[in-house]
Structures are given as C-alpha cells and as structure tokens.
C-alpha cells in the first residue's frame, strides 16, 4: 500500500453568476445567516481534511476582502481567470511549493454550499489509493432524450449517464499539467474532462443529492431547505 498523501482544497469563486440575475455574484448572496461562499469554505475547513484551501477570486471583487474568512490562516487567495478552468489553474499555481506533485487536490465549486464532511470523507477514502482520481456524481432519475430542435431523436440509456458534481479529486501534478495542456479549450467545463481529453479514466463516486449547485434564483430556497434538513 502506498503512502497516504496530503489533501488540498481548491475553490473556484471568480464567476459573475449570470444565470442567478442578482445584484452581486451568487457566492455573496445571503443564505441561512451567512454568504454562500462562507458556508462552502467553513464546511471545507471544518472537515479537517485539508492542509489549506486555495480560493480563486476575481481581481475586481469588492466583497471578498470584507469577509473575515478571507484572512483565515488556512485560506490562500489567488486571482480568478476568464473561465472556471483558468480560475482553478490559478489556484493550483498558488499551491506551488506547498503541495507535492502526488498530493491530492479536491476542487469544489464555491456555489455548492451544502457539501457535507460525509461526502468529502467518502470521496477521499474511496479514491486515495487510486492512480488517477475521480469525482462525486449522481445518477439521473429522469428518462433522458436526445433532441434536435424540439423533436426527440432518441432515448438515451440512463444506465451509463451520471451528473458530475464537485469535489473532483486529482493528483496535484497531473491536474495542473492537464489544465495547462487544455488551456483555452471550451469543452473543459470540469477537471475530469481535462484528464479525459488526455486519455485518463477518472472514477465516479456516488454523492449525496443535497450537494446542489446554486445556479438559478430558486436554488437558494432549496439550499436553505437542505441545510435545515442537515442540521
Ligand atoms: N467560476 C470561476 N471563474 C470563472 C467562472 C466560474 O471561479 N471564470 C466559479 C464560480 O464562481 C462557481 C463555479 O466556478 O463557484 C461554478 O461555475 P458556475 O456555477 O457556472 O458559476 P458562474 O459562472 O458564476 O455562473 P453563470 O455561469 O450563471 O454566470
Ligand atoms: Mg459559469
């Protein structure tokens, strides 16, 4: 059995939240007494799984410096990038000299504040001896249709379809190299897709359905409901 490696968290938080249509980026909207990003970071820090959390923040972001958690000793701030993948790569660079090439990095969206220590532990325990790593995912309950225009052209076999969540857990060196090699490719919407493009085969680990991403206005009430259920 190989030596257990240290784990680091990376949190992309430099998006503008266009689909949320709010007066500020969605990570700064209030939810159950805190901002969304405070919940996310407090849960990552509280899991005790990480050496540090590197957060990618837009250079024009006036909200981040106002939060006490921005100066937490285990929180490292990195400049955000144009796309999510650019933000993740920037946060990885901020861990240079700290993280070892074979250490694990768990990338988790700032917009997923309902993440549980349970899910984090489950992901790490399942994959820590894996060569590549993998992601939390959920199976699809709905019947899925392939559609052109508004016409169904096929029904998709649901058995092979999973929805990608975060955290996504990969080796520091391998993930950084994969994101560098696929830089600017619009098809790279998560970490796994960058590794897949280079021929790696990441694993999936079934996650909890309450680990939702705040994307549209109605998601805030749903996140609040899940948090009350978790308490
Ligand atoms: N993100 C980032 N840098 C970007 C774009 C997104 O760090 N250039 C982050 C977001 O802050 C979010 C996560 O990636 O925590 C997932 O992205 P998404 O849900 O798409 O957030 P936004 O891009 O902010 O929302 P939208 O796509 O509706 O504009
Ligand atoms: Mg986006």
What is the fold-level CATH name, i.e. the topology?
Spore Coat Polysaccharide Biosynthesis Protein SpsA, Chain A
From the N-terminal CA to the C-terminal CA, the straight-line distance is 37 Å
Number of domains: 1
Largest sheet: 7 strands, mixed
Strand order of the largest sheet: 5-4-1-6-10-7-11
Our estimate of the beta-strand percent is 15-25%
Class inferred from helices and paired strands: alpha/beta
| Ligands, deduplicated | cytidine-5'-triphosphate, magnesium ion
From the alpha carbons, calculate the radius of gyration and give it in angstroms.
17 Å
* Average of pLDDT: 96
State the helicity in percent bands.
Answer: 25-40%
SSE run: EEEHEEHEHEEEEHHEH
Helical stretch tally = 6
CATH superfamily: Spore Coat Polysaccharide Biosynthesis Protein SpsA, Chain A
**CATH architecture assignment:** Alpha-Beta Complex
CATH class (first level) name: Alpha Beta
Which stretches are low in confidence, meaning pLDDT under 50 for 5 or more residues running?
Answer: none
Architecture overview:
With 231 residues, the protein is of the alpha/beta class. It has a single domain (7-230), classed as Spore Coat Polysaccharide Biosynthesis Protein SpsA, Chain A. It has helices at 36-46, 84-93, 117-127, 172-181, 191-197, 219-230, and strands spanning 7-12, 30-31, 34-35, 53-57, 75-79, 104-107, 133-139, 144-148, 151-156, 162-171, 203-206. The strands form 3 sheets. A 7-stranded mixed β-sheet has the order 5-4-1-6-10-7-11, sandwiched between helices. It has a two-stranded antiparallel ribbon with strand order 2-3. Helix 2 (84-93) packs across helix 4 (172-181). The longest helix has 12 residues, at 219-230. Cytidine-5'-triphosphate is lined by residues 12-20, 27, 56, 80-84, 87, 109-111, 213, 215.
């Amino acid at each position: 059995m190989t030596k257990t490696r240290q784990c680091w968290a990376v949190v992309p938080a430099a998006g503008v939240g266009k689909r949320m249509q709010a007066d500020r980026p969605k990570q700064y909207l209030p939810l159950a007494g805190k901002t969304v990003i405070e919940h996310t970071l407090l849960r990552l820090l509280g899991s005790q799984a990480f050496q540090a959390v590197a957060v990618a923040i837009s250079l024009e972001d006036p909200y981040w410096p106002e939060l006490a958690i921005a100066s937490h000793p285990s929180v490292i701030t990195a400049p955000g990038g144009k796309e999510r993948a650019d933000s993740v790569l920037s946060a990885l660079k901020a861990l240079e000299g700290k993280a070892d090439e074979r250490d694990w990095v768990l990338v988790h969206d700032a917009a997923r504040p309902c993440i549980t220590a349970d899910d984090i532990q489950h992901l790490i325990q399942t994959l820590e001896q894996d060569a590549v790593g993998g992601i939390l995912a959920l199976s699809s309950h709905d019947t899925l249709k392939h559609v052109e225009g508004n016409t169904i052209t096929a029904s998709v076999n649901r058995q092979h379809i999973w929805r990608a969540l975060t955290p996504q857990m990969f080796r520091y060196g391998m993930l950084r190299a994969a994101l560098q090699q696929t830089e600017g490719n619009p098809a790279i919407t998560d970490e796994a897709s960058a590794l897949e493009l280079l021929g790696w085969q990441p694993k999936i680990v079934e996650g909890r359905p309450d680990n939702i991403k705040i994307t549209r206005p109605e998601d805030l009430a749903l996140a609040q409901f899940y948090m009350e259920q978790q308490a």
